[in-house]
Amino acid sequence: MKHIIIQIGRCLMHTKVWTFIGFTSAVVGLLCYALSSSFIHLFGNWNWLKIFLYGVFCLIICFLILLAMIWNHSRCFRFQVQFAFLVLTTTSVYSFFSDKMINGKPDAYSLISSASFAIMSLSLSRQTQCGFEVDLLYFFLGCLIVQLMKIKLQLFIVGAGFSYSLIIIRSYFPSTPIDVGPENECPEIQDENSVVLHVISLDLASNDIASSLMEQLRTSMKALQLENLHIVDMLLEQEKEYFDNAPSMLSECSLEGTLMLEALSLETVNNLQETVKLMLNSGFNKECLIVYSSCRRECLEECLVKQFLNSDNLTIKDVNMEDLGLRIKRWIKAFKVAFKILFPTERQLCDIVFFEFSAISDISFTDVCREFTIRLLNFPNVIANDQSNTTLLFRMLDMYETLHDLIPNFESLFCDQYSVSLRNELNTVLKKLGETIVGTLREFENTIRSKGPGNAPFFGGQLHPLVRFVMNFLTWICDYREILEQVFEDHGHVLLEYTKHDDTVPSSSSSSSSSSSSSSLQMERIMEVLESKLEAMFNIFNDPTLGYVYLMNSSRYIIIKTMENELGTLLGDGMLQRHSAKLRYNFEEYIRSSWGKVLEFLRLDNNLLVHPNMVGKSMKKQLKSFNKLFNEICKAQSLWFIMDETLKEEIIVYLGENLLPAYTNFIRKLHIVLKLEVKKPPDGYIEYETKDIKAILNNMFKIYRPSSCGRKRG
């Protein structure tokens, strides 16, 4: 609440605000007065001459209101005195005729015009010191109270309350109006309305007085600094809790700025405020700003730089990736501490110390924080120079998220005309970092496309490392989905430029990207490139059956990774359905290429054209071929790898449902043909019983468990 009041106070200290208030009040007051009964009583009914003259009068009044600040800078004391006399006589004559002619109750237009003219006078008293503004304010407030009392005596309370409010606001105005433009960051504050004050100002400008004030200011600043550092030490002891143990509490850290300020001694702050006010009213603007800004920068140096940004934290030359990751973490912590705690504290402190001098408060705050802000923004600017390192992508996303989330804090702190360059710098860094993130994703896609399969098949159908790497990469991306969508929303045009000039991009992807650009589309493009690489890798297998096992493992791994997190949401249901279909197709091709020949040897209709006396011999030959091929397949595939127990179980169940019945029927038929009894032990040409085949099938394949490549955010 205190901070809001300070912000309102700062707003009301700006002369441009009061120029607008004064102009608006004058327009409203003049219009309402023209429509009021008071005007009709004094000047009669409207005609074209009166409309013309009143219009010219209104234009002159509005023009003078807009140029009120020029009056203040005028050195013609005689002009100010004569103008004050003109206003005095005009209001006196108006009062005379108004009291004489108007006896009835005033209407609403009269009340509104009096209130508006009172506010107009208040705005003039904020902008200039010509000697008549306060008297004019009191005159119109008096008119308002009298008019309200004519309507009903009890309305005196309303008029008195309104008048008291304006007078209280007037009491908070500085003794001299201040207007600071960008071309003059340290304005001179002078009071030209009084010769006596001018002489006093000259006396105060003496070296002895100046030295005394400077020493008093340094003493106050030193006392403030000691208290500030003690409070910051206590705050930084809690830093680990905020940033390491409970990141979710970070949103509450903005309260710490207020708590830090409230923890300062009221006496210390008041002494500093009084000293600063005395120096500024005495004309020592530049000296005051130099001392104040220097001391506060030292305090920030102690709090921010030594704790978070020591000598080599913001450099990346000759730094390995692990150390660079730690430095980026440290930068994120520093940026959040700065814009959630330290800078808001500085902003509030400036508002309090320079309460009556809002423009100087803005200048001081910017001067104190500019160097540290530039240093903080320079680090992501340097990081953004490298878009070839995919590992660094997630750290860049962390930085982008930090910057993006704190834009409101940044803009609320650096909202004045003296901080335009800092706001522009933030936008430049965000743009560069966002474009680098998009470019890095594009480079990652190109890296996948350029990867070769290697010189030899992957042992036992295991996953190619590229599959694991890409899927883990996409899984990590899910943690950054929201901020990545924001990046593509702001900087997706960079990807469109890449796509437009890239002949390697499939036409479907190119057309979709040209109509829209999002993280989902980019992830789909990466998956398309990966799938095409998988298909190409199939050709390096001499044994197609092993190739189908490899493709099954790849599809199964992609499905598992997609279903265990939000990757399915990111890539869409189409990708999951596509790989499920591919898994089924490769499963069927594996059965056909591997077990199709085995089942062919167990077909009973193979002997339909054989002479009855030769059927037994033919079937024994079939069984012999079956035994040989079955043994070779089981021996080879017992060394192969399957992605998980579920896929292995699916294969064994399928073989059990198709191979075992065929084998059982074949052996039964063979017994009949050879006129053997079912319970008679088989001769040597029957190597396997049904239970033996089932046991052998259960021992096929090893379960492949790829090493975990998990990553935690932060």
From TrEMBL:
The chain crosses the membrane at residues 20-44, 51-71, 77-96, 108-125, 131-148. Keywords: Exocytosis, Membrane, Protein transport, Transmembrane, Transmembrane helix, Transport. Residues 329-698 form the Exocyst complex subunit Exo70 C-terminal domain. The keyword Transmembrane applies. The keyword Protein transport applies. InterPro entries: Cullin_repeat-like_dom_sf, Exo70, Exo70_C. One of its GO terms (molecular function) is phosphatidylinositol-4,5-bisphosphate binding. It comes from the Eukaryota. PANTHER family: EXOCYST COMPLEX COMPONENT EXO70B1, EXOCYST COMPLEX PROTEIN EXO70. This is Exocyst subunit Exo70 family protein. It comes from Medicago truncatula. The lineage of its organism: Eukaryota, Viridiplantae, Streptophyta, Embryophyta, Tracheophyta.
